[in-house]
Design a protein that fits this description.
Helices cover 75% and strands 3% of the residues. The chain has 309 residues and is mainly alpha-helical. Helix 1 runs parallel beside helix 9 and helix 3 packs antiparallel against helix 5.
């Protein structure tokens, strides 16, 4: 178990990440497991990106957005897992600058994914509810603008959140009961009044999580209403199958992020928070390409053609 370290200065130069303290043998097993997960996640998402890039049949707005999501997932796991692997090998310290950089990039990617999932829901709404205007409304240029806008908005909101974290004073324990630098564990280490920082963080979290989520709920309500009015059962199944993979990803991602971030005060450093963070930052990027490929014959056929060549 990591020993707590105390300091009486207001400028901590490094933090110590507790990670998942277990026996040495189990640490090596976990290292191997997460290394395999990391490599598989990178491989899966790169295959998705390359397939969409090379197959002209997938040059559609839905797949451009899926490619952007896969690109995001590659960065997501690259921000979290390498640091976790180092932790399993007993490299538990991280410099202040590296910690704050990891914090900013991590929450930026989380904010971007929230918005990007809403944009993908909008694409499905236009395709199913107003299909005759799909090619006009969802042009390649507009699709690119929405994707870039999702990234810019996510990183801008995360910058505001990060600035308030950067301004906090850390004096006391430098031990973070987590495997990465996240907002709640850092709030627990501050020795100054953080009530305003907590309030700002909560408001921004609600904006970046709830507004896209409400938008997704509204679009899927409209989609469901339109699908129920389709006269034949085969048409209804085809329309729903195009949304099933995206809806599955939305449910997995939002159930975990709402638990972690949509709370009005700092979270107690319980181990369950680390487990939930593992799920949406490590497991979800691994599952997303599998979910999309299993539910989408176009992607399946394109991947098969790519490997056959």
């Amino acid at each position: 178990m990591v020993q707590l370290e105390k300091t009486h200065v207001n400028n901590i130069s490094e933090f110590m990440l507790v990670g998942f303290p277990t026996s040495q043998k189990l640490q090596f097993i976990l290292f191997a497991v997460f290394l395999i997960i990391y490599l598989l996640t990178i491989l899966e998402n790169v295959i998705i990106i390359v397939t969409i890039k090379l197959d002209y049949k997938l040059h559609k707005p839905m797949y451009y957005l899926l490619s952007s999501l896969s690109f995001l997932e590659v960065w997501y796991v690259s921000v979290t897992i390498p640091n976790l692997l180092a932790n399993f090998l007993n490299k538990k310290t991280i410099s202040f600058v590296a910690c704050m950089t990891q914090l900013y990039i991590f929450i930026s990617l989380a904010c971007t994914e929230c918005i990007l999932l809403a944009v993908m829901a909008l694409d499905r709404y236009v395709a199913i509810c107003i299909p005759l205007r799909y090619t006009t409304l969802m042009s390649n240029i507009f699709c690119l603008q929405m994707a870039v806008g999702s990234w810019c908005t996510g990183f801008s909101i995360a910058m505001i959140k990060a600035i308030f974290i950067f301004r906090m004073t850390f004096c006391g324990s430098n031990v973070i009961n987590h495997f990465l630098c996240d907002i709640s564990p850092l709030l627990n280490l501050s020795c100054t009044d953080i009530s305003f920082t907590e309030l700002v963080d909560f408001i921004l979290a609600m904006i970046v999580i709830m507004i896209p989520l409400v938008m997704i709920i509204i679009t899927y309500f409209c989609i469901l209403w339109t699908v129920l009015r389709i006269p034949n059962n085969q048409g209804r199944q085809k329309a729903l199958s195009t949304c099933a993979s995206h809806l599955t990803v939305v449910i997995i991602f939002y159930t975990t992020t709402l638990f972690i971030y949509a709370r009005p005060k700092k979270a107690n450093p319980f181990d369950r928070n680390k487990t939930i963070t593992i799920f949406y930052s490590v497991v979800t990027p691994l599952l997303n390409p599998i979910i999309y490929c299993l539910r989408n014959r176009e992607v399946q056929n394109s991947v098969k053609r790519l490997f056959c060549k």
